[in-house]
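Notes on consecutive records. When two proteins share a document, each keeps its own sequence and its own token line. Never mix them. Below: protein one.
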Amino acid sequence: MLNLIINHLRCLPQEYLVMAIGALPVSELRGAIPLGLYLGMPLYVAFFWAFLGNVIFIAPALFLLEPVSVYLRRFKIWSSFFDWVFERTKRNSLKVMRYESLGLFILVAIPLPMTGAWTGVIAATLFKIKFRYAFISIVLGVIAAGIIVSSLCALGLISWKAVRG
């Protein structure tokens, strides 16, 4: 799937391509940093663009997820989709429910599938965490995840070929 998206975005400058991959819920930093390195960027440049892509949507999503989901739930297909997403997030977010902001940070900081900024936004919305606490926790979690992914890339434990499958 990432290859298909990248093929459609090949016309963009490399920095914007890394930023776009960083913004996608399927890849976030886990995919964007290795992609930047694969494209020949220095690690700090790949980190910057991946981080920017991963955090640029957080504030709007924190404000808009609840009202948009309430509106779209009037339609059966969207109702089923949001039920699935919210239930899946609840199961993966027990730490968030118990520790709120700290749990949200931990959820976002662990660079595994079904964790990250997008899941953090959903969890913050579900558990009614105040915007300022949610935003700070998610951004700090993205920074921590970026440091972990960058370290693993620098050690040669993660590469773009491994990420794209």
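Protein two starts on the next line and is unrelated to protein one.
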Amino acid sequence: MVCQNESIDESHADLARDLRVLVRERLQAGDSDDQIRAFLVRRYGDFILLKPPFKPETWLLWGAPFLILLTGCCTILVARRRQNSLLTANNLSEAERAKLEAMLGEDES
């Protein structure tokens, strides 16, 4: 929870030390690994696990990287389309340019 992507054994955080003590106490009390894991998940939530399960409560945790990537790709695509449309608008033929200058000249009078 404090040090993401580190097990409680690898982490030097105070919370990890407290969790190690709690796990030892539960092991001495005779709890199995699954019982200890269930206890910790009930107490701290799925986010305490290194690999949280995919379920409605954790969909954003699993889907966020893909959503960020999709948003970035869409932003780049929209920016390129705008840039291309601006470049196309600037490429007027001589007749179109003359007509535009005539129209602009009339409006300024």
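For the record: The chain has two domains: 1-53, 54-109.
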